[in-house]
Amino acid sequence: EPEVTQTPSHQVTQMGQEVILRCVPISNHLYFYWYRQILGQKVEFLVSFYNNEISEKSEIFDDQFSVERPDGSNFTLKIRSTKLEDSAMYFCASSGLRGDRSLRAFFGQGTRLTVV
Amino acid sequence: GDSVTQMEGPVTLSEEAFLTINCTYTATGYPSLFWYVQYPGEGLQLLLKATKADDKGSNKGFEATYRKETTSFHLEKGSVQVSDSAVYFCALLPSGNTPLVFGKGTRLSVIA
Known about the structure:
The complex is a heterodimer. Helix content of chain A is 0%, strand content 49%. By secondary structure, chain A is an all-beta fold. In chain A, strands 2, 4, 5, 6, 9, 10 and 11 form a seven-stranded mixed β-sheet that branches. Chain B is mainly beta. Chain B contains no helices and twelve strands. In chain B, strands 2, 5, 6, 10, 11 and 12 form a six-stranded mixed β-sheet that branches. In chain B, a hairpin with a 5-residue loop joins strand 5 (32-38) and strand 6 (44-50). The mean pLDDT of chain B is 92. At the A-B interface, strand 4, strand 5 and strand 10 of A face strand 6, strand 10 and strand 11 of B.
């Protein structure tokens, strides 16, 4: 089965530093997503991306966050100035269907971000 | 707003035991319902889904039935194996087709 790949699997960073989380979605997919899960809490939607722009974002996705698809294969999440509360597992997902796009979303294995 | 509540874990069972992980939801309209599984070191994988009331999703011996009257989508398996040890997430897709809404996840450990 096709896979969404995320790197790194674990990132430790100091508070205030910038981090970039990387994802390689499935190659013919059109919709891309970031979700996160703070330890012990729900998996929360951050942002969706289609046609080279953000199509939807949650309240969590403030000016500290940005997404980019720099080269047609990677999909990145940048956190500009990390805070302790950004520590979480970040999941990338992609889907290809124009209609029910979230109905068949494929998820990566996640990147665990630890801010110290 | 839309939300999913699933039973707190961890759940520890012996091999061949019967599994139930409860999931209830709150949503307007007619959401689709999902169970995702995350095995150690891997990503979230779709386990099964149901798109309308009374549908039963099934895969790998797991089943869940979409019960609109009780707003539930409980996951069941008749005989668990050690390889079923994972975190299980209940999720819903609102009828407006906006992003998935997940529960907190339930960790299942199956011991031989």
